[in-house]
Amino acid sequence: MLKIETVHHVSLPASDLERSATFYEGVLGLEPMARPAFDFGGRWYKVGDRSLHLIVPEDGGDPTFRHGKPIDSRDAHVAIRVSSYPGAVAHLESKGFRRSTERHPVPTSDNPLPMRLSPSGPAGFPQIYILDPDRNVIEINAAKVD
């Protein structure tokens, strides 16, 4: 039997490492951490006591990018727990994200940074869904609404 201890890290593809760094450091406030000298581009971030790894695909590779897809909580996503749901909403709004009433919002010229809010629902905790620059779905949740 496999005795699992915890999730070690999550990896996401990044087409433009600097653009992604602006999002993960500037919007989410993740702290960069040391990364081994791999022979491919990437960046590692601390997420609590775990890590998030951004990986730049090889030229000619076939990375899993979500081009043209909306925010969809049923698609692959990374979930980050925060201490304050309203604080997270206010922070994201200060970074240009705007609430959307659509179930599966897509970035548009009217709302290039949509965010889907779910303050209550079957999960039992409040959730926010946004997209990173490569349209990876990011869930931000809290234990309660506050």
Structural features, described:
The radius of gyration is 16 Å and the shape is globular. The chain contains 2 helices and 9 strands, in the order βαββββαββββ. The model has no long low-confidence stretch (mean pLDDT 93). It has helices at 17-27, 85-94, and strands at residues 9-13, 31-33, 42-47, 50-55, 77-81, 98-100, 114-118, 127-131, 137-141. The protein is 14% helix and 29% strand. It has a 5-stranded mixed beta sheet with strand order 5-9-8-7-6, covered by helices on one side. It has a 4-stranded mixed beta sheet with strand order 1-4-3-2, with helices on one face. By secondary structure, it is of the alpha/beta class. It starts with 8 loop residues before the first strand and ends in a 5-residue tail after the last strand. The protein folds into 2 domains: 9-55, 2,3-Dihydroxybiphenyl 1,2-Dioxygenase, domain 1 (Roll), CATH 3.10.180; 77-141, no CATH class.
- Give the proportion of residues in helices: 10-25%
Percent strand equals 25-35%
C-alpha Rg (nearest Å): 16 Å
**How many individual β-strands?**
9
How many separate domains make up the residues? 2
